[in-house]
Amino acid sequence: MSLSGLFVQALNGLAAASTLFLLASGLSLIFGVTRIVNFAHGSLYMLGAYVAWSLTDRLQGVFGFWFAIFASAATIGVVGMLIELTILRRIYRAPELFQLLATFALTLVIKDATLAMWGAEDLLGPRAPGLAGAITILGRRVPQYDLALIASGPLVLIALQLLLTRTRWGVLVRAATQDREMVAALGVNQAVLFTSVFALGAALAGLGGALQLPREPAGLSMDMTAIGDAFVVVVVGGMGSIPGAFVAALLIAEVKALCIALGDWQTPLGFVVAFPKFTLVAEFAVMAIVLILRPWGLMGRPDVAIRPQATTSAQLAPPGRGYDLAYLVLGAVLLTVPLLVETRSYTLVFGIDVFVAILFAASLHFLMGPGGMHSFGHAAYFGLGAYAAALCAKALNLPMWSALLAAPVGGFIGAVVFGWFCVRLSGVYLAMLTLAFSQIVWSIVYQWDGLTGGSNGIVGVWPTSIFSSKAAYYCLTLIVCGGATFVLRRILFAPFGYAMRAARDSVTRSAAIGLDVRRIQWIAFAIAGAFAGLAGGLFAFSKGSISPETLGVGRSIDGLVMVLLGGVDTLTGPIVGASVFLFLQDQIARHVEYWRAMLGLFILALVLAFPAGIVGTIRQWTFRR
Amino acid sequence: MTAPLLKVSGLEAFYGAAQILFSVEFELAPGEVVALMGRNGAGKTTTLESIMGLVDRRSGSVDFRGHELIGLRTYEIARLGLGFVPEDRRIFTDLTVIENLEVGRRNPSDAAQEPWTPDRLFSLFPNLAEARDRSAGRMSGGEQQMLTIARTLMGNPLAILLDEPSEGIAPIIVDQMIDMIAELKKSGVAILVSEQNLPFAATVADRAYVLDHGQIKYSGAIASLLNDEEVRRTYLEL
Q: Percent of chain B, pLDDT > 90?
């Protein structure tokens, strides 16, 4: 690798850093003031690129092009404003996970709206007029547009800093970032402040997307990659810090660029290290390292605490005899289903999916509800279990029983390793670290062709002959998942469960009565990981094949939606939530073309109808009376 | 006595399911300094926060200049000319002193008022003038206490709710605080000051109310409270 090659990659990194910064600064600003983690930020970025495609298509010339870019940003600003006014405004007092759910629902709606308006094909944008050429630096050709993009990051940083320090609006924003209530007590109408901040953040995301158009085509997958990158940058920089976001964007973009520049490296030991393959992992590795060294990010403040979970959680009463009996009866009834339907009935396949989802949701609920740790990457443990089982069955040719035993072990090991780091953090930072670890696992699985089959995954993972019929496998999953969910529930009312809930409600008070909080949380992580792994193992044998999607972000989010739908503070929550979610997904997906938007609108309606969570809202009603 | 500026009647307040205030009643006349006395946990801070709309739930009536405050949002209450100085100061530590004042700036609700400006406040609080462009987080406790009061004054309030101003600051600052309250009273601002410290309250206030377990147990001139040993022993002294 030559010096000039390194230089060109470094420039490339700077251009990428500008886009990342535009994306992350808006996210950080919004979080700072409204305390909402805006999952839809990547969707606004994507929308910016699509709007810019339509506008640049109509407006020609240098002036037309740049007018189109800024008009796109303004359009997205207006979209952001409408979102804030119609949806977010109603849920500022809701638990933060519900806010996250609402913004996630928005991503679904925006994605389908984009699909409906622009179609599924990637749309190639024009080159920037006047900047279409390249200049030669150190014998290498560097696109002029990249240089313009490089300049845009620092320019926006300076503009934002001036806005935040030199205007009354900016001073109010900074004050509200620190203490919203006090700002209100001084006579400032927060609603106006929130709306304007959200509009500005959205416009920045839109600008980022629009500016990206001459470099890459507008596509429907831009939203998820963008939101992942933006989260990482914001967390590394420190939630709410604009300069932090800038530094983090540079750091991450340059680390990625360096990986590409290094190329394949022939180690003295003989094997080849392919650095370009690390680009997917690099940003999450940087994030993991930063969070371990500085849990509040490079330039964040340790006191940016998310509202304590304790204020929203209800007490759990131990289930009585009747409850256990009802659970058993329900299980027995479900066990008779195979007698009533055809052997290859879809009902059985659906039933298996539901049971697996219930166990997955129950394990996530265990961690999130009573454990108080919000995992955004729970699919990692599910997937590790699935891959452990599939590899035992296929690579080692072990029987299904031992492969199914390997599944919880796989989830357990992953949770022990990642959990050790995660329990050192709390709140949003913990959630982001879990997401980072799951992305690392996903990248490794995706790129390690030799072991995991890469993007093709592992195929031909079928149960042994006794369980080869759907009916038999249905009964197996029912018994295993039902039993495991029951065990998880019992743990909640064992001394460990009480200790775990004490640790959630108050770290200091628990420590004062002699509980080792980190150890308890670590064990909780390991337990949840093992059960998620078991669900993954059952999943692998039910489908016959697994792919990296098994442990992708999508599955983590599905899990979150299931748990939140059912209610974090209820015991039956995960069971009801998983069943309802799968039923809805199945029904909507089969009958409606734009099923994602339908699902999103359904979730939004739910969140708006029950702004304090289903359980919380019911409690408020009874309390008012 | 002239018509009250602030009239609280039947005020009840709740945090979650817990009721903190029970039918609290009191009045504050224009230009008057009234002390709200009581021990820790008596409900003094909750009373002030209820007036400002900062509690979970409240009921009863809070009348300020003919406006009913129950049902209004915090910022609307502040805009009517009611200033709030919290006990724990809550200054914006990331902002400079002058920026903290900027957050509080509002035009006077009464045109006849001479508006507060940073310069006018700096003559009242000389320490702040020197720290003008310093980050507020780097100031001493006493200076921060001065800054919160100055910040609230920037809103040109007609009445101020001052929560435990003498709490946790040096005696010399307490003396300055006494002078400052006298100065404000002269300028016509009404002040409701919550206090545990009877000598301090006796120096600044005209009248006093005593709160205990969320109920008003005594009301009268501050001088009679000083002479009423039984009330003092039952509700104030430790």
A: 53
Q: Is it the case that residue A611 has pLDDT exceeding 70?
A: no
Cα gap B5→A624, rounded to integer Å: 32
Q: Do B190 and B178 meet the contact criterion of CB atoms below 8 Å apart?
A: no
Q: What is the pLDDT of residues B38-50, one digit of tens each?
A: 988 889 999 999 9
- Backbone torsions φ then ψ of B57, nearest 5 degrees: -150, 140
* Count of beta carbons in the 10 Å neighbourhood of residue A420: 14
Do the strands B67-68 and B57-64 form a parallel or antiparallel pair, or are they unpaired? antiparallel
Write the residue in B17, B90, B95 that is nearest to A171 by C-beta: B95
Q: Are A244 and A299 in contact (CB under 8 A)?
A: yes
Q: Is A493 exposed, middle or buried (0-12, 13-18, 19+ CB in 10 A)?
A: middle
Asked if A438 and A556 count as a contact pair (C-beta separation under 8 A), the reply is yes
Predicted local distance difference test score (pLDDT) of residue A397 = 81
* Model confidence at B109: pLDDT above 80: no
Return the bridge partners of A503, or none: none
Instruction: Say whether A182 and B92 touch across the interface (CB within 8 A).
Output: yes
CATH architecture classification, B6-236: 3-Layer(aba) Sandwich (3.40)
- pLDDT of residue A414 exceeding 60: yes
Mean pLDDT, chain B, as a whole number?
89
Instruction: Give which of A169, A186, A311, A315 to mutate to test B binding, by max B Cβ within 10 Å.
Output: A186
| Whether the predicted pLDDT of A127 surpasses 70 | yes
Count other C-beta atoms under 10 Å from residue A581's C-beta: 23
Nearest to A187 among B79, B92, B102 (CB): B79
Residue A474, CA distances (Å) to A349, A357, A457, A464 in order = 8, 13, 24, 14
Residue A1, pLDDT score: 56
Q: What domains can you pick out in chain A, each with its CATH number?
A: 16-130+138-227 (no CATH), 349-591 (1.10.3470)
Q: What is the pLDDT of residue A311?
A: 46
Pairing between β-strand A134-137 and β-strand A140-143 as defined by DSSP bridges: antiparallel
Burial class (CB in 10 A: 0-12, 13-18, 19+), A594: middle
- Look at B103 and A188 and tell me if their CB atoms are within 8 Å: yes
* ipTM (interface predicted TM): 0.92
The token duo for A380 is 């990692």
Higher local confidence (pLDDT), A596 or B120: B120
